[in-house]
Write a structure and sequence with these properties.
The chain is an alpha/beta fold. About 50% of the residues lie in helices and about 15% in strands. It is globular and about 70 Å long.
Length: about 325
């Protein structure tokens, strides 16, 4: 059963009534209520288009966090073959919030790395809700080093509210680990592409997304801090997250205008969670396109391309 967001409550009522009618029809075959159910379906479709045709930034944040949205594990299983996970940072531990390993994309060898939030209570705790610790970023550095050594393109899938801010993470050098991962993104001489599949939060996202090409799903968000965190700092009130989201310019459209991201991957009407298969197919197509754009470039050209991208960042759309 679909989990509805707060602003989808009117839609939930209509779709719920349509399902009730169908359940009655299944229980009593003599009842013919197909016309009534079809009318409710039409009304629900129109409401869905109305709701998603004008999402506010805060509502986009809610959609980006939807628990049924496809996660990193879903993308790896659907888009890659021969995935061989590589664990640990060879120093402290294996961070389950970060998945990564060797794989094939369209039968070509690649390195894939991403944040995994988990899908139920047990897996979310195990994955720390996608919030990586220092060992997660050091694992990513190790895998990017390996990709550079064997000339493998790197594909990163970003979905995190931010790096884990706990005491142990800070003691083990969280800031330094994030900085090293970001530095490694800038240094490797292979194609590096990133897709923001849900939340792109803070340095925890930048450490994976300092790439030659960055794509965002239509209803994903990417920002230095969550709207709740921003509101707590600016207004001392996390309930002002709607105002913060409006001011932060964290949507795919805003970031495309600013030159922070390169592509917007359209989602099915109602968000990625309503048609995961269609979303996965769209991401596959865009990853293939970005890899094609970078194919044949030398290591020097790829590094220069990345450097130019980040030096120029923010120059576009500032007056908009």
């Amino acid at each position: 059963m679909t989990q509805y967001l707060d602003f989808e409550k009117p839609l939930a009522e209509i779709e719920g009534k349509a399902e009730e009618l169908r359940a009655l029809a299944r229980a009593n075959e003599e009842m013919d209520i197909s016309d009534e159910a079809a009318a409710l379906d039409v009304k629900a479709e129109a409401m869905l288009k109305e709701l998603y045709g004008s999402l506010t930034p805060w509502r986009k944040c809610q959609v980006a966090r939807h628990p049924e949205r496809p996660h990193c594990k879903d993308y790896i299983e659907a888009l890659f073959t021969d995935y061989t996970p590589l664990a640990g940072d060879r120093n402290f531990a294996d961070d389950m919030a970060v998945m990564g390993g060797l794989a094939r994309f369209d039968d070509k060898p690649v390195m894939v790395i991403g944040h995994e939030k988990g899908t139920d209570t047990k897996s979310r705790i195990e994955r720390n809700f996608g919030m990586a610790r220092p060992e997660g970023y050091r694992k990513a550095v190790r895998l990017m080093d390996l990709a550079g050594r064997f000339n493998l393109p790197v594909i990163t899938l970003v979905d995190t509210p931010g790096a884990y801010p706990g005491k142990g993470a800070e003691e083990r050098g969280q800031s330094e680990a994030i900085a090293r991962s970001t530095e490694k993104c800038l240094q490797i001489g292979v194609p590096l592409i990133s897709v923001i599949i849900g939340e792109g939060g803070s340095g925890g996202a930048v450490a994976f997304a300092t790439a030659n090409r960055v794509a965002m799903l239509e209803h994903s968000v990417y920002s230095v801090i969550t709207p709740e965190g921003c509101a707590s700092i600016l207004w001392k009130d996390s309930e002002k997250m709607r105002e913060a989201a409006e001011a932060m310019r964290l949507t795919a459209d805003d970031l495309r205008r600013l030159g922070v991201t390169d592509r917007i991957i359209l989602e099915p009407m109602g968000g990625a969670h309503r048609d995961p298969a269609k979303t996965l197919a769209a991401v596959r197509l865009n990853i293939a396109g970005m890899l094609e754009e970078l194919s044949g470039k030398s290591a020097k050209a790829l590094i220069a391309d990345r450097r130019r991208k980040y030096l120029d960042m923010g120059g576009k759309g500032l007056a908009a």
